[in-house]
Structure formats: C-alpha cells, structure tokens
Write a structure and sequence with these properties.
Elements lengths: L12 H4 L3 E7 L11 E7 L3 H13 L4 E4 L5 E3 L4 E7 L7 E4 L2 E5 L4 H10 L2 E2 L11 H6 L3 E2 L2 E2 L4 E7 L5 E5 L5 E2 L2 E2 L7 E8 L1 E2 L2 H18 L19 H7 L6 E2 L2 E3 L7 E3 L5 H19 L8 E3 L4 H4 L11
Parallel strand pairs: 2-5, 3-5, 4-20
Antiparallel strand pairs: 1-2, 6-7, 7-15, 8-16, 9-10, 11-12, 11-15, 13-14, 17-18, 18-19
C-alpha cells in the first residue's frame, strides 16, 4: 500500500483519491507566469477528506509536496518537481455571508470574495480589486496594497496538517507581517478562512474599489504574463523606483523583460525561462545595492526543483530549499 512505503508509484494516487490526478503534468499553465517544468504528479483533491488522505499518505511515505494557489507570486523551476503539486479545485470554492463575517473556502478567487462583500455592504477588503489569485494564497502571503492588508481581517482559519488532521486556528494563532504570515512554509494547508469585516455605506465601498482599480490599471502591466511585484518595497522607498533609477526599466534577458509600465514587474514576453527571470532579478539586486546599499528582498517565491546553489544569492530571504 502507498501508506506503507517510502517510494511511491504515483499512479496509485488515481486509485486512492476521488479528485483529479495528472501525472508528469506541466505546471507552467497553472501559474500567471506560464513558466516552469513538469510535476511528477499534479493533484486537485475533491474535498477536505480527500486532501486529508492525500497529505497523510505523502507525509508517511516522505514524498515532498507543494501547494499552488492561483499561481501568482511564484516562479516555478524549469527543472520541474519530482514530488506532488497540490491545487485546491472546485471542491474548495464557496462563500457564505454571516452578519459582518465572510466565510470563504481557500480556493475561492479574490474577485468573488470582494463581490460578495460589496453586495453585503461589508468593507475592509476593497484592496482585493485587481489582485489575481485565491483567498487562500492571499491569507498565506498576507496580500495587501498601500497600507491595507488581509491580516487584520482574519477571524478564524481551518487548515489540514501534514498528518491529515483538520484543525481550526484562532485569530491569535495567525501571525503576519509585510507579505508574510505564519502559515507560509508551515506545511499546513489552508482550506477555509473567516474574515471579520465592517458595515459601510455602499457608496464608500464603491469609491475605494474604483480607486484601487484605477491605480492598478494605470501603473501595472495589464495583459503581459507576470507574477505580480517581484521585490518587496524597502522601508521608505519603492522597488520599482529603485530599479528604474539604475537604468534597468525595459531590460531584457532571453524572453523575460523588466516592464516599461512598472519596473517592479518582470514580464514573460513568450519563450522565457524561469532562469531568465532569475537573471534579471540578480542584475537588479546587484545594481541597486551598488548604487544605494539596499538589498532588495524578493516577493515572489521559487518553487520546484531549483539548484539552490545557483539561486541562493537571489532568494536570500527564503529559509529553505523548495
């Protein structure tokens, strides 16, 4: 049985699970960058029970796994991944309004959460406007804009642990910072979130939503393949402004290019590799540091079987290999 071995024939997952199991599956199409090689197995569990069984099996067999949300803010390795990539599919979509609280399953798109909150005259998540991805990914990465982020709205979380246990976390169990939370790298899989929002006049909510949309439409790439902001903004400054100031706006490497709309975005023009993106990131970091002695910290996350010795200098803020 799969549970009793440390080596796994991934074909057995098709028998074990009720959800979708794809073998030797390209991961690029599931990311906003459209970059990266193949995963040994790509799994979309049907429901929480299916996910629990999957994690229990993978943990006991010591098979590595990665969680993929909406596919933004990640850079998947050209070399692929010898383990299992897990994505929460239709069984993890859904929203309920409970007074001033929004209960959302982790695979739900942010735009859907924003829409339901607006309909219920609930404010506090207007900054979701124009952000791609899922509510689960947003919570794990503490997504935000300007001085607003999702962390303060968290009321309750439900996760599945690596051992397959379904566990409810309180607000006090969730720590967050700038583009970071205690869920990141924890091994726990977020399956549901409860946000505590506040009743506001519809006109005020609409005003703020339009303002966020306007900012993103005017200052960010609209149609080009990208993963969102590449670097975190240093305190008191902006990564895009620093990149532009050292003359790297529009810089190319292979099929990748620093956006001419916003220099903190790197675009896949077509035919780019994940290594092309890393090469541009490294050049930006070196030039900005030489000019300002500021060490830019990546916001996007490397995933898959990277040769860590080749990219450790770029992703210096990542604590361990993926």
């Amino acid at each position: 049985m799969l549970l009793e071995r440390e080596t796994v024939d991934f074909k057995e997952l098709k028998v074990l699970l009720k959800g979708k199991v794809l073998l030797n599956e390209p991961v690029g199409p599931y990311t906003t960058y459209h970059l990266g090689g193949k995963a040994a197995a790509f799994v979309e569990p049907k429901d929480v029970e299916d996910l629990s069984e999957l994690l229990r099996c993978l943990s006991r067999a010591r098979v590595p796994y990665l969680m993929l949300g909406g596919g933004s803010n990640v850079l998947f390795a050209d070399e692929g991944f010898k383990g299992v990539v897990i994505r929460l599919g239709r069984g993890f979509h859904g929203i309920q309004i409970e007074g001033d609280r929004v209960r959302a399953k982790a695979g739900t798109q942010l735009v859907a959460v924003l829409t339901k909150a607006r309909e219920a005259n609930l404010g506090g998540v207007e900054f979701f406007a124009g952000i791609p991805g899922t509510i689960g990914g947003a919570v794990v990465g503490n997504a935000g804009a300007k001085k607003a982020w999702i962390g303060p709205t968290i009321e309750e979380l439900t996760v599945v642990t690596p051992s397959g246990e379904v566990k409810r976390l309180r607000k006090s169990d969730y720590q967050y910072g700038y583009r970071h939370s205690s869920l990141k790298m924890s091994g726990n899989v977020l399956v549901e979130v409860v946000l505590k929002l506040k009743k506001e006049p519809k006109a005020e909510i609409e005003r703020k939503v339009k303002e966020y949309f306007k900012v993103r439409r005017g200052k960010q790439p609209k149609t080009e393949k990208n993963a969102g902001s590449v670097f975190k903004n240093p305190e008191g400054n902006f990564a895009g402004r620093l990149t532009e100031s050292v003359g790297l706006k529009g810089r190319k490497a292979g099929g990748a290019r620093v956006s001419e709309i916003h220099a903190n975005f790197i675009i896949n023009e077509g035919g780019a590799s994940a290594h092309d993106v890393v090469g541009l990131m490294r050049e930006i970091q070196k030039k900005v540091f030489a000019e300002y002695q500021i060490r830019l910290e990546p916001e996007i996350l490397p995933m898959g079987d990277w040769d860590w010795s080749e990219i450790r200098d770029v992703f210096w803020n990542v604590e361990r290999k993926f």
